[in-house]
Design brief:
Layout (H helix, E strand, L loop, with lengths): L23 H15 L5 E5 L14 E2 L7 H11 L4 E7 H7 L1 H10 L4 E6 L29 H4 L5 H6 L4 E8 L3 H19 L4 E7 L3 H4 L3 H15 L3 E5 L7
Helix pairs in contact: 1-7, 3-4
Length: 250
């Protein structure tokens, strides 16, 4: 049999802390593949947020700065300004970015900081026990919304890709999904585009990955993929919400 896949060199051969069926690992692989293909591994610095993202340094042989909860964009800003020749990416979950880190992500994006953010949206706080996140869908049951999220008391799920796309400093804002080979291939293209934006000094770039959390959703890994397809995508449509070109770059 011919091998159709092999571990990218920039993804360490180590045990994973992610639950079986979690799509964080797919996002990691895509980032590693793109770093290898673009030959920028040696000049890249990763900045993970708190939560399931936290152990980035276990998987990538790059310099990693661990950020306080929600503060990855602020740390990325400081790192990029101190070392503008480096490629800086933040890796955040929805509880980290869209809750405690809302101020940091909005203002870093609005300033047009020349960094890249990879955002994992699995509609729940993963590591801390499955609590409701800002991205939790209406009617979705979590440990803190056992009867389902109610817009009258908890408000509506936040659409980060669309919201950030309205800011002048944003060069690229897109949403992709990790539940099928077709969508994974599209996600990889988005990762590359976001990093190209940074290399070309176009401003802030963000890729939102629709991901699964079968453990906290309390479904099987296969069922979780169907939930993403049938419930997440209708509310969180896939696509590019902003892409700056050279002619509109001030």
């Amino acid at each position: 049999m011919n091998a159709v896949f092999k571990r990218p060199p920039t993804l360490k051969d180590t045990y994973t802390h992610f639950c079986p069926g979690c799509t964080h690992g797919i996002a990691h692989r895509l980032i590693a593949e793109v770093l290898d293909e673009m030959q920028i591994v040696d000049k890249t610095i990763g900045i993970p947020g708190v939560g399931c993202c936290v152990f980035l340094y276990n998987y990538f042989p790059i310099d990693v700065l661990e950020a306080p909860h929600g503060r990855a964009p602020a740390c990325a800003t400081g790192m990029k300004r101190a070392q503008p020749d480096k490629i800086i990416f933040a890796y955040q979950g929805d509880g980290d970015m869209a809750a405690i880190g809302t101020s940091e992500i909005i203002h870093a994006a609005n300033r047009g900081e020349n960094v890249t953010v990879f955002f994992i949206n699995n509609t729940v706080y993963g590591m801390t026990g499955g609590q409701m996140a800002p991205t939790t869908l209406l009617g979705q049951q979590t440990t803190t919304s056992p009867y389902g999220r109610n817009f009258q008391t908890e408000g509506y799920p936040i659409k980060m890709a669309e919201m950030l796309a309205t800011l002048e400093g944003v060069a690229y804002s897109t949403r992709v999904a990790l539940h099928s080979p077709k969508h994974v291939n599209q996600a990889k293209k988005a990762v590359r585009k976001a990093l190209e934006m940074q290399i070309n000094e176009m401003g802030f770039s963000m890729v939102e990955f629709l991901s699964t959390c079968n453990t906290n959703w309390r479904v099987s890994p296969l069922e979780a993929l169907k939930v993403l397809e049938n419930e997440m995508i209708p509310y969180y449509p896939l696509g590019v919400f902003k892409e700056r070109t050279g002619k509109d770059f001030l």
